[in-house]
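Objective 1b. Sequence-to-structure analysis of Arginase.
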Amino acid sequence: MRLLAPYHQDDLLPTLAEELPPDWADAIITADLPAGGDGWERLAPIYAAVADAVADAQVSPTVVSGCCCVSLGTLAGLQRAGIDPAVVWIDAHGDVQTMETSASGYLGGMPLRVMAGYRPDLVADEIGLRPVQEDRLVLVDARDLDEPEAAYLETARIRRTSLAGLDESALPDGPLLLHIDLDVIDPTDLPGLRFPADAGPSAAQAVEAVRRVQATGRVAAFDVAATWDPAAPDPGGARRSIAAELLDHDASWAGATLDWR
């Protein structure tokens, strides 16, 4: 099941589908957003719709969006389907900010912290998301951390590893939600990123690491945040090429039955 939620926060990205393989999505998920309310209240209908689609999937779904926060809906959908996954979070950033520590207030810097149980009243309760124990969260290649994130991670039980070190020995037991924010890739390989972070792996290295996790046969859902600005130039079609390789559904993991219930 291939799902596209074409949003960055509450901004609909109508051209995001054009940078994916032709006719890639089985379903495009949109939602009616409330006119008022704070950021999380506006975003909750998107994540609830994603959760519904994932929970109804009969095979391991892939979810593509323009924002890491959509992964909250992916996780909630797996939990609703009776699956209790660990989370492998590949990202150049920590995404463990809070409303109280974030200097910018950018919600896209918080989803992994929400998964770990931070303030469920914000959005988790609304979409039926249960917290994941910290030691079942794996943060991969986060090299651009704000001070509050670094301080939290010093004492948190969240596992950390490099992309090169991401193999079966680095993974928790059981089913996995595999998430990749494509800004983990060095910006020289991937143009137009909203939040580029230098000194990252190549696109080929990122795809190889994803394949190693998929090869375990334990990926219950694959969540991809294409965190580039679709309006930004894409010389030589680099973004399309990377998306096509990453979303190649000839990989052996794709279509596996959700049999971890």
